[in-house]
Design goal:
It is built from 2 helices and 2 strands. The protein is mainly alpha-helical. The chain has a domain of about 60 residues.
Length: about 220
Amino acid sequence: MKSQNLIAGIFLVLAIVAELFLISANRQKSLALAQLRDAQQQLADAQSQLAQATNSASADTAAELARLQADNQDIPRLRNQILQLQAENSKLARQLGVTRQTAQQQQQQLQEMEAENEQAAADQQAQADQQSRVAERLAAQQRNQCIANLRLIYAAKQAWALEKNKTDTDVPTEQDLLPYIKGGTFPVCPSGGAYTIGSVGQVPTCSVPGHVLPSQ
């Protein structure tokens, strides 16, 4: 009887242990299944992301290819534009060279004209100075001649007064003085001045400024 109870107890313990083992195995199985589902979900997400990335890369590649094709289509047009610009630049360079050469020639001509003008101005100034000196000499000669005439008139007036017994207040005329002037001709101012004989006590005068007989 005791052996049966012992065996029954052992079986009960084994049953409990088996139950516990089964429960533990079921828990591990459930945990493994959950991990498997998570892994499958992660794999699905990765596949989805890979597909999206592939689609996006394909779209970007297609867009880039389209852009490159468009750029390639513009290359001949751009090449033609570059050739045209180069031709225009060459033409402008030639025109600039011609313009620069013309400007240099004009500058040289201007410098020559300035030199000629300066020389002409110098010549004119020299001529003007010479004419001024000649005019001054002529004016001095005319002034000296006029003063000599005034002396002649004064001397004739004094001779007339002495011979005719005239006083200092008496005023002779040209006709009165002609006999006392050599040649019998009344002198004339070389500058076109008019003479005033005046009285015997006065010196004769000329209307031209500077033609003055010094005080006797």
